[in-house]
Amino acid sequence: MIHLGRKNTLKILRHTSVGLFLGDEDGHDILLPNKYVPATYEIGDDINVFCYLDHDERPIATTLEPKIMLDDFAVLKVVEVNEIGAFLDWGMEKHLFVPYREQARKMEEGKWYLVYLYMDERTGRLTASSKTDQFLSNESLSVKRFEHVDLIVSRFTELGAEVIINNQHKGLVYKDEIFQELKLGQRLTGVIKKIREDNKIDVSLQELGYRNLEPAAKHILDVLNDAEGYLPLHDKSEPDEIRDLLGMSKKSFKKAIGVLYKQREIEITDKGIRRIKRINDR
Questions:
Q1: Quick one: average pLDDT of 199-217?
Q2: Which of 40, 55, 101, 206 is the most core-located residue (most Cβ within 10 A)?
Q3: Whether CATH 3.40.50.920 fits 210-275
Q4: pTM for the predicted model, two decimal places
């Protein structure tokens, strides 16, 4: 079956004046227009293409790279707004439609929005929606505590950054646990920190508990080496100072320097921490 809104690996069936016809194992075919035909090919070759509906609502194949695919999220730019809705640049010749009913707030030309791409069952068209919460659910969770997950930054609030977890669930990274600049639509990995009784999920962008000690300690050693063996940080330093220099919380910092001290990697003074030089250090 040829899947609209997705990449398809299809077989080159025949050449015509308008392009190549490609087919699947079920006998369905689709046109790859001449402008996308590769310089060299053989009948019977497999080719990877993206399939969608063209301006005349006909299934068409292209070698253009989509900025979003079916059942996924992405931040896209509005290139046109008219009486029926907004249109987004998603890398295709035909822009992606967002009807007014699917806009969380009225979209404006030139601005960027996080959207979800779905198939409108009524019209059979690929459609985008900025009302992304309707495509997420925390009723039945597929994740557990301490699990590593894929994240998409979906919204910024007074509490922190709301994230989409594994394209399925909603979660929150608290602002006092964010030690890097985040952007809307950014993809990154995190760890499930806590699952509350109401199935709300707290997410961490760093490893948790004892899992955080080894990488945090190694990071401090790396920064010490780059700083000629000395950092003006200690257990009385302000959290903002630690965050600015090391990108970690004060709690993680104190645990990490405790480990390094016990391993005789550093000495701790009233003014900072210093790397202990060893005989074989160069």
A1: 78
A2: 206
A3: no
A4: 0.77
CATH superfamily of this structure's domain 73-133: Nucleic acid-binding proteins (2.40.50.140)
pLDDT, one tens digit per residue, over 27-46 is 999 999 999 999 999 999 99
DSSP E strand boundaries for 63-147:
73-82, 85-89, 96-99, 112-120, 125-129
What order of strands is seen across the sheet that includes strand 230-231?
A: 230-231, 273-275, 266-268
- Kindly tell me if the per-residue pLDDT of 211 is higher than 90: no
Q: Where are the alpha helices (DSSP H) in the chain?
A: 213-226, 239-246, 250-262
pLDDT in tens, 133-154: 999 999 999 999 889 999 999 9
Report in angstroms the alpha-carbon separations of 58 from 8, 20, 62, 127: 16, 15, 13, 15
Fill in the DSSP letter of residue 121.
Answer: T
Q: Which CATH superfamily is domain 148-205 in?
A: Nucleic acid-binding proteins (2.40.50.140)
Fold of 7-62: OB fold (Dihydrolipoamide Acetyltransferase, E2P) (2.40.50)
Query: How many angstroms separate the CA atoms of 155 and 116, rounded?
Result: 14
CA 223 – CA 275 distance, rounded (Å): 10
